Amino acid sequence: MIRIKMPRNLPPEIDSWRAKSLEITQEILGATSLGEKHALIERYKDHWRDHNLVNFFSDISFEKCWYTETKFGGDYQEIEHFRPKKSTRNSDGTAHTTHTGYYWLAFDLSNYRLCKSRPNRKKGTFFPIFNESLRAFGESDPWEDEIPYLLDPLRSSDVVLLSFDDNGKPVPELHSNEDEVRRVNFTVDKYYLDERVLNMRRKQTWNAARDLFNSYLNALQNVTKSVSKRQDAENELNKLEDMLSREAEFSSVAKASLIKTGDPIAMKIATST
Fold first, then answer.
1. What are the C-alpha distances in Å from 144 to residues 43, 147, 167, 190?
2. CA–CA separation, 146 and 7 (whole Å)
3. Mapped to the 3 state alphabet, what secondary structure does the chain carry?
4. What is the Cα 147 distance to its own chain's centre?
5. Closest CA relative to residue 115, chosen from 41, 188, 191
6. Count of CB atoms situated within 10 Å of the CB of 21
7. Which of 65, 250, 262, 258 is nearest to 169 (CA)?
8. Alpha-carbon distances, residue 244 vs 12, 89, 205 (angstroms)
9. What is the pLDDT along the chain (273 residues), one digit of tens a residue?
10. Backbone dihedral region of 146: left (phi > 0), alpha (psi from -120 to 50 degrees) or beta?
């Protein structure tokens, strides 16, 4: 999972998209029955599939899925509704008997996340929260007060809870409390982040970052002896920084691999890139 920072100033095409979204939302809010609201969501569903919106989300994440951290290739980028639009499931998979979805957020930019098809399908309409008394049931309720089980890539405090081990498996960050561990494990399961191939590729990234760091340390030992050795150290450091770049796949894994060495130099490289 990667931290996504929404730009303060949106491109003109996204401002236009939001203006249309406000019109659609007002139409939904004006509908007298839940069935009519859901029908309107279906009628306008192509609006959240607008290519300008998809491209905007893809650009701010460097063409990476916000959850798996893999680049989009031939697979289609999908807009996922973080808070489900027409129904809600509890943590055990049962339907929430009194909550019929966050229909008023169906066309809200802040409720969208960009991901690949597989995590989108598995997450579906799951949206358990820690305190049901804070559940929002309508547009006038403070839905921002909810604490979801699912980690949110738009929140730095959520993203830092997820780490990785040396086998590439997603794990809770060290010293996480019981609720934080629960959130991490639920997110890993529902976005299918523990998938075998993902773990294999993360392990490769983990090992490659460690190898580059060790090569860098070895080259550092000889930098005072020759110009070429100094350049060798610089080259290894540049490669490592490329892996840590937000543009790189699994950059968070490379970062974790350095931090978890406990080496001060490795930690400085990881946190300064």
1. 27, 8, 36, 21
2. 24
3. CCCCCCCCCCCHHHHHHHHHHHHHHHHHHHCCCHHHHHHHHHHCHHHHHCHHHHHHHHHHCCCECCCCCCECCCCCCEEEECCCCCCCECCCCCECCCCCCCHHHCCCHHHEEEECHHHHHHHCCECCECCHHHCCCCCCCCHHHCCECCCCCCCHHHHCCEEECCCCCEEECCCCCHHHHHHHHHHHHHCCCCCHHHHHHHHHHHHHHHHHHHHHHHHHCCCCCCHHHHHHHHHHHHHHHHHHCCCCCCHHHHHHHHHCCCCHHHHHHHHHC
4. 17
5. 191
6. 20
7. 250
8. 31, 36, 10
9. 999 999 999 999 999 999 999 999 999 999 999 999 999 999 999 999 999 999 999 999 999 999 999 999 877 899 999 999 999 999 999 999 999 999 999 999 999 999 999 999 999 999 999 999 999 999 999 999 999 999 999 999 999 999 999 999 999 999 999 999 999 999 999 999 999 999 999 999 999 999 999 999 988 887 666 667 778 888 999 999 999 999 999 999 999 999 999 999 999 999 987
10. beta
- Is there a contact between 139 and 93 (Cβ–Cβ < 8 Å)? no
Tokens of 19: 């203006």
Place of tokens 């081990």: 165
Dig out the tokens for 192 from the structure.
């299918």
The amino acid occupying position 88 is: T
Q: What is the 3-state secondary structure (H, E, C) of 149-160?
A: CCCCCCCHHHHC
Token pair in block for residue 199: 């773990």
Specify whether the CB–CB gap between 2 and 159 falls below 8 A: yes
